[in-house]
Amino acid sequence: MSYTSRFVSGWISLCSLIFLPVALLNLACAGIACCLKPRKWTWLSLTGFLLHVGNLHAIYQFPKGKTNEAEGIPLTVVIYNTHNFYNGKSYLPEAMAYIDGLDADIFCTQEGPVPEFISEDTIQKYFSDWKYRYMSTEAGYSSVSIFSRYPIQKVEPIYYDTIPAVTLIADIEVEGKIIRLLNNHLQTTSVNLYRDSIQNPIHEKSRIEAMNQLLVSLKDNFQRRAKQADRIRDEIEKSPYPVIVCGDFNDTPASYTYRRIKGNLVDGFIEVGNGYQYTFRQLKRLWRIDYILHSKEFRGTECYSPDLPYSDHNMVVWKGKIREEKEIR
After folding, report:
1. Helix H or strand E encompassing 46
2. pLDDT for 59-77, tens place per residue?
3. pTM here?
């Protein structure tokens, strides 16, 4: 239902944030209703749960059997909303030591490294594994970056009208093949802006005011992300190259934003992930809002989100290959 909000009402979008607890509540109610009469309540609750199955599929995957190894060019992509590598304290050395071990060919960041807080010398020290880089520089916007071991041919930044959202569209040459990468940091949820006022209010009235302001902000930002998603979908459809679309969408799989951007792309986690995947570490770890999506020219072998304390988000790691032409047909 929430993915109709682009055309109906922004308030409906709020449903996408709570689809997981609502789905589990419906399943629990169905179990309880089995012991009661009339049984219509069982079917009602079960229907409510089944309506969420598609969304649950995007956050939980049962273990898969080993897939046949695809032929092609190996590629490892890591994305990370770094929160400038700060989560109560600076975690830059620890985070980069872990990322170095992933042997990433392409490393996409959101919210850092911010040059105002991390010096050029420090960036050179920790990001020297990637010869090519592009960092967004527009004042007031999120710091979004692409670090690559392969040549970045060109970059088109999109600075949306609603600060701080940014998309970087980069053409990267990987062993003679051009791929198009879209690294996104879409409109914020504003949760962090109001969190302290809600959790530690001066008085109860201020808590209620902050909650009301948060709800209005959530609704407005859903609508802004929907417009940004439309723009990204347009860029995907006109790309002459295989595409990888990644980053912090600030929306769950139940949202219009996710569904609009994904379209006919492959969700890396759905393709080759296992278990439960969340990427936002706050709010009881219920939200998956960071993604790696790709066109059919890629084939994943592994996709996971390690549980690490270096930011308020988890990074997402995707490993796969750029497929040979004969495999795509």
Report:
1. helix 40-50
2. 789 887 666 677 899 999 9
3. 0.84
